[in-house]
Amino acid sequence: MSQSSRPSLSSRPVVKPSFDPQVQPILPPPVLLHPLPQQALQPDFITQAFSRPISWEVEPIFSDAFHIDPEVRKSMIPAAVFFPLVQRPDGLHVMFTRRATTLSTHAGQISFPGGRIEPEDRDAVAAALRETREEVGIDPSFVHIIGSQPSFMTATGYTMEPVIGLLKPGFSVRPDETEVAEVFEVPLAFLMDPANHRLHQANLPDGRQRLYFSMPWGPYFIWGATAALVRNFYRYLSAAHTVSRV
To answer: What pTM was computed for the model?
Structure first.
């Protein structure tokens, strides 16, 4: 988030979730899905998948959150996040941040670098790159943009557009400690295996129910909007792999 648009931490009310996401019941998988093969987890395949239109569907459980009504969108705050892919000796990894515990919203939660699209940002890509530089210190010159995916409407009033990119060798990470407590990576192969996607149902205090995915990795509990974007990335690559076999 741009420094110029941030009020001081002490001036913002702290927003806490109304339930503990880690202890909510886990539902049976809604449909049997298969892990992506190694072929679909390579940078060349992913780059090619985003280079041309393909026929695919967003995660159906969150269809309404991806297919946002134009009138509803007008009342939302446009935002962008960077979905960073990192090449490691054992394959591609995905970089995440753990938010600082002092933040007013989503404190301590797992997220991608990102924030609202400011007036000075040319587009969502520019916003995602700026936020990545501000939050984790990665210069845009070390980012190869691959593409973007549909915006996701969050419960906190944002439309979050994910920008997919590959980090070039030589990048360095310098987290802004006021926003980011930790930067870590998870193997893409783990995230692209639906067996690692847990679907939860939370019963909210107001009587409503909320469905969300989680993807626990060691001490990190990836859930909510971040997990929804990962799940949608799986849906896209799965469709691209199916097309490639035809």
So the answer is: 0.90
| Domain presence at residue 32 | yes
Phi, psi of 202 (to 5 degrees): -105, 135
Residue ranges of E strands in the chain: 26-27, 77-88, 91-99, 110-111, 114-116, 143-148, 152-153, 158-167, 180-187, 198-203, 209-217, 220-223
The pLDDT tens digits of the residues spanning 109-137 come to 899 999 999 999 999 999 999 999 999 99
DSSP lists the bridge partners of residue 76 as: none
Taking only the tens place, the pLDDT of each residue in 11-21 is 334 445 678 99
* pLDDT tens digits for range 51-89: 999 999 999 999 999 999 999 999 999 999 999 999 999
Q: Which domain holds residue 138?
A: 27-49+57-245
CA-based end-to-end distance of the chain: 43
* Token pair 């980090």 in the structure block, residue: 167
